Amino acid sequence: MNANDLNIHEDNQEIITSIQKVLEEKQLLEPLRGKADVPIETLIAFLYESHYKNKDKEDVYKTVKKDSFFRTKKRWVKTTIKNIDAPKAPDKELRAKSKFLQDYISKFGIAQFRREFEVDSLEMYLERAIKELEEWAESDTLLIHSYPYFEEKTARQHKTAVQTDLLVIIGEFLNNKKSDYKQTVSEYVISNQLFGVSSRAKIELEGESMPFTGDGEMFDNQEYYPAVQKKGFNPNKNVNIIVSSDFVNDLNKKVPDLDAKDFELFINVLNYRDVNFQTTRRIQFPLKDLVWQVYGNDAGKYYQMTTERLLKLANYRVTEANDEGEYFVKGLFSSARILNDVKDTKGGKIVTAYVSEDVYDDILRQQVINIYSEKVEELKGSFAYHLVFVLQKERLIAHQMKEPNPVKRKWLDFRYAIRFNRRTKKENLEEFEKAVSQIKEQQFLIQDYYRSGEYYFFTFFPLSSIELEDYTPKPDIRLN
């Protein structure tokens, strides 16, 4: 059977339509349509039927990534680099580019070459081009048809590349049907200056480490090296990176900066959170799964690279001082560990990470907004808006602890998140009860409540299916 012979079965139509939407969102539908030799809808159906239907979708996806996707990319890059100086190689791709630039220098001179291409020599240009190609070959997200010299490949190579790219996209869709609720990206992570633009930058550190002491988990009474601030590009001079002295010393002070791959890895880690996250801030998952997500390959070096990035995220902090002279230390993880005596059911290593309080609070806030956006919007401008996020936290804790409705809470127990700053107890309770009543009127989180003395009794709505999906404990993890 080939793609031309396949009639799209109506049972597959929903999947095909969904994958087309994914391609549209990624702005890949038209580029792939133009490179495919049959209608893209027919090709998607053919690839789904022949590779994924009634098979272990995760195993198929991993095999495609390892044996077809990465192998093709690395082979193409290796060949074009080797052909630059090969005597009988065809004049195409990087070799043709090199010859063109040699002629350019002969015709216009080295000075014009430097102005036009912003490098000092042809050798430097080729070094840069080779580095970019090698990074492309290692990239988990850049598809085969994005190869810089793709148009110079043969029609058969085009066909195979498009099919492999589609198999990857189909596999990602089938293995990652996760709700938007689960895929929350913490605004805290985005709004703090943790991640740099360069993938290979090193941090220049001050000469001596210093202790950071104070209240809060980020003041962990360890010693840190402050990074040397680079002039001209930092919009906030009161913000700086500091790195744990133990981590720095282990690396002989050759410390890599946080980059886009670290950001991607951190977001992937957040998506492993389960019901235990609500009360412990703990995220626990198999290391192998994260390696596959980040690199699409489980070779030994990718385990090492993933481990190094996890430890990097756990050992970096951002310090910030405001105009009032207040001082803050912020971070992403309060800790991350990969221990030999903690295994999953298949014997693989387990990562145990604890996110910082700032990240934790922001994730809960974002999740509530994502699910109950219209109702939350109605409460903006009032204390009830703040109380929504506090009560959602209590609702999730009650679910995890299997507390029956009505759930009993002392009003002063909410001081961990609320400053009761009215003059009297009566005034504080009036404000609190007014906010609870406003939330109840919106008919979410709270079905009913009443107060008896110092205690409130809340009848919470059951968790929705999307919340239950997010807080279902993960399988295949056991502690030895």
The largest sheet, given as strand count, sense and whether it forms a barrel, is: 5 strands, antiparallel
Helical/strand content category:
alpha+beta
Low-confidence stretches: 177-183, 472-480
Question: What separation lies between the terminal Cα atoms?
Answer: 49 Å
Question: Helix coverage percent of residues?
Answer: 40-55%
Summarize the structure in words.
By secondary structure, the protein is α+β, with helices and mostly antiparallel strands. The protein folds into three domains: 3-175, no CATH class; 187-356, no CATH class; 372-467, Ribosomal Protein S8, Chain: A, domain 1 (2-Layer Sandwich), CATH 3.30.1370. The chain contains 19 helices and 13 strands. The strands form four sheets. Strands 2-3-4-7-8 form a five-stranded antiparallel sheet. A three-stranded antiparallel sheet has the order 6-10-9. A hairpin with a 5-residue loop joins strand 7 and strand 8 (327-330). Mean pLDDT is 79; it is low at 177-183 and 472-480.
How would you sum up this structure in a few lines?
With 480 residues, this protein is α+β, with helices and mostly antiparallel strands. It has helices at 13-25, 29-35, 40-52, 57-82, 93-108, 110-117, 122-138, 155-175, 187-191, 245-250, 260-270, 277-280, 287-295, 300-315, 357-371, 373-378, 383-400, 425-441, 465-470, and strands at 202-203, 210-211, 223-226, 239-244, 255-256, 282-286, 316-321, 327-330, 333-343, 349-355, 407-410, 446-452, 455-460.
